[in-house]
């Protein structure tokens, strides 16, 4: 298992584009029946991720005090946490977060250029010392309520619960009967997962950019524009 992050640092995001960037492409054709056993195939990843998330909790405590006293998230710790989020996204994309590929996820924190799912985050040069005290529990609370609907409370091996798990189940049924993944459903699932990972990056203290209340669907990040909706129309 490789844990060395070899991907180059993300370049600065365009103005109006959230610094956490999720992209993916749908692998076609997909197996009609493989999705039924992905809960078993992905089990080794879930075991590894369990330990990685425990490590993230420890890292986040260290990063909290580092930001509080220096205004910076130590780069090795930042790369580790973003790597865990990246790994988690690849597993979700393979399994019941999207079912977007039949290619088995790699065991690595680094970005894998030819894998169909990617997630990256621009490293911030400076983080607010004051925001670190409140953003992970108070400021992000409205998003937690939304994510409760997206992710639900049920946690079973074959079903994650919530809207994302239900829509992934619909996608699996569609694959079983038609051999095709409904494109609109795929785009919606990408948008929901993008929302989840933006909030995760903010709550993990990795960025000071507040996640927008906006569902950006599809496999590509939206073009540059206002983060929280269209600009108000200017009157002459």
From TrEMBL:
Chain ranges passing through the membrane: 47-69, 132-151, 157-181
Assigned keywords, A-Z: Membrane, Transmembrane, Transmembrane helix
InterPro entries reported for this sequence: DUF4389
Chain segments carrying region Disordered: 215-236
Q: Name one Pfam family in it.
A: DUF4389
Q: Any idea what this protein is called?
A: DUF4389 domain-containing protein
Please give the organism. Streptomyces composti
């Amino acid at each position: 298992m490789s844990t060395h992050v070899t991907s180059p640092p993300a370049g600065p995001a365009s103005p109006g584009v959230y610094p956490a960037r999720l992209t993916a492409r749908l692998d076609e054709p997909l197996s009609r029946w493989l999705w039924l056993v992905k809960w078993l195939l992905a089990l080794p990843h879930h075991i590894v991720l369990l330990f990685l998330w425990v490590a993230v909790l420890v890292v986040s405590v260290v990063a909290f005090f580092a930001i509080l006293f220096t205004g910076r998230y130590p780069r090795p710790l930042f790369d580790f946490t973003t790597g865990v989020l990246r790994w988690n996204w690849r597993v979700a994309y393979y399994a019941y977060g999207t079912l977007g590929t039949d290619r088995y996820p790699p065991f690595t924190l680094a970005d894998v250029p030819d894998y169909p799912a990617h997630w990256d985050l621009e490293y911030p040069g400076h983080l607010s010392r004051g925001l670190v005290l409140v953003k992970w529990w108070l400021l992000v609370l409205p998003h937690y309520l939304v994510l409760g609907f997206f992710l639900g409370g049920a946690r079973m091996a074959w079903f994650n619960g919530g809207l994302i798990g239900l829509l992934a189940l619909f996608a699996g049924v569609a694959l079983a009967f038609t051999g095709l993944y409904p494109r609109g459903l795929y785009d919606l699932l990408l948008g929901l997962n993008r929302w989840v990972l933006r909030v995760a990056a903010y709550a993990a203290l990795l960025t000071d950019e507040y996640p927008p209340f906006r569902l950006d669907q599809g496999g590509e990040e939206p073009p540059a524009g206002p983060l929280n909706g269209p600009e108000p129309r200017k009157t002459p």
